[in-house]
Specification:
Length: 428
């Protein structure tokens, strides 16, 4: 499609957009009486209007039923999480028995490493991406130390080549092959949080398995954003947070995937709790641990139902729309944003910005990360003051993530106009 940087063209794209009415299902912060232009769905998704109903339902059941809500609430609390299995499994390409919701992301990755990072004297290394999200880096360091290894030796980062912003796929595969027999675990992001680069989950998994390693993923920026087929791709385990593209609310619960091939493996370590206990026997309060077969068998505590409520509202919206339609709109919306950035680059000499996200569609999803040379911080402040919500990542990057659920083409056009103004004012 040939794009145009005009309001009429943007509105025409909105009119043709099959998903356009979903925008009204979300609550936008207001700026001078208008919706903000929201680019931070990769950090905290907007609140779906129905989320409040789901929370109110739990609050009302708590008021009216108190402890009896566990079994007699509108959606009984004791198995509240089971309502996620169907819709969530479709979002990440899994069997319902392979997914669960529990805890928060880093906690879940730690718990999954308890099961899946089983270092031996000779096979103990972990491969991850250079500049993985800091929480993951701290997790790797502390897990490796916990097992008595030296992080500097045991953690192998796949690096960017000199002068490049992204990691080359062939370098990931080459590093996996190079570490070979010493490799215990590959734990990669599905999408890099800083650059928005999408990694090839299927190929990385295959390469890890070929050298005898376990392969897991941090899908914080991937779940609800990219096409995932975790079961078919034979991924061993994965976890994601729900507050980004999945719009579940601040700091909210995490989702987990554990491939069914591991469900009956009694050799895997687990840090157990009573919510993983065989459901028929859980309330018999017996000492012998007999876990549920499936991802639910990795749960620890009983569930934070109040925080699961808005997450459930959100996954039910995803189930209505489906990932394929969201991805189709995402591709076009991101391409339109990229086009607008290039147009401004052409119109204003010396704009001094650079898109560092890969330009090919296979390696990018919703996010474009833009490196602002020169007066970057001032430009960011200008955008925020004009109602464009984006975020700043040191040293000079703003991340623009137009979530297809609620962002419009007109937003992209209006953003371009504000950016143009901003560059001219800041550069004066
Ligand atoms: C890629 C990635 N991993 C891990 C985390 C940490 O998530 P949490 O604080 O929910 O553990 C984040 C948070 O933004 C993230 O983006």
């Amino acid at each position: 499609m040939t794009f145009q940087n005009t309001l009429e063209f943007a509105q025409q794209l909105d009119n043709q957009d099959e998903l356009k009415s979903w925008r009204d299902q979300f609550i936008f912060p207001q700026h001078n009486g208008k919706n903000v232009i929201y680019f931070t769905g990769n950090s905290l998704g907007l609140q779906p209007k129905i989320a409040k109903n789901y929370v109110d339902e739990v609050m009302n059941d708590w008021a009216n039923l108190a402890v009896e809500g566990h079994f007699f609430a509108e959606k009984p609390w004791w198995d509240y999480h089971e309502r996620f299995a169907q819709p969530l499994s479709k979002i990440v390409g899994a069997k319902p028995i392979e997914v669960t919701v529990m805890n928060t992301l880093t906690v879940n990755l730690h718990l999954l490493m308890v099961s899946f990072y089983k270092p031996t004297k000779t096979r103990y290394k972990i491969i991850c991406e250079e500049k993985a999200f800091p929480s993951d880096q701290y997790m790797f360091q502390t897990q490796v130390k916990f097992h008595g290894f030296n992080p500097e030796d045991a953690i192998v980062e796949v690096k960017r080549r000199e002068g490049e912003h992204n990691i080359r796929h062939e370098d990931i595969i080459a590093k996996i092959n190079e570490v070979g027999d010493e490799l215990a675990l590959v734990l990669f992001g599905g999408v890099n949080y800083y650059t928005g680069q999408v990694f090839n989950v299927e190929q990385i998994t295959k390469a890890g398995h070929n050298v005898g390693a376990i392969v897991g993923f941090d899908l914080a920026h991937a779940a609800g954003n990219i096409k995932l087929e975790l079961h078919d791709w034979n991924v061993d385990f994965a976890a994601w947070c729900s507050y980004k593209y999945m719009n579940s609310g601040p700091g909210n619960a995490s989702g987990c995937f554990i491939h069914e091939k591991h469900h009956n493996d009694k050799t895997l370590n687990r840090f157990a709790g009573w919510w993983a206990q065989n459901k028929e026997r859980r309330f018999k309060m017996e000492p012998k641990f007999d876990p549920i077969i499936g991802a639910d068998g990795w749960q620890v505590s009983n569930l934070p139902v109040l925080s699961l409520a808005p997450y459930l509202a959100s996954v039910e919206l995803f189930a209505q729309v489906g990932m394929d339609k969201l991805i189709a709109k995402r591709n076009q919306l991101t391409a339109y944003l990229e086009f607008i950035l290039h147009e401004i680059d052409k119109e204003i000499p010396g704009t001094e910005f650079e898109i560092i996200t890969p330009s090919n569609q296979e390696e990018r999803a919703c996010q474009l990360s833009v490196f602002l040379h020169g007066q970057g911080r001032n430009l960011f402040d200008y955008l925020m003051a004009k109602g464009v919500i984006t975020d700043w990542r040191e040293p000079n990057v703003i991340r623009l993530a137009p979530a297809p659920f609620y962002c419009s083409y007109e937003d992209m056009y209006n953003f371009g106009q504000i950016l143009k103004e901003g560059i001219q004012i800041v550069n004066k």
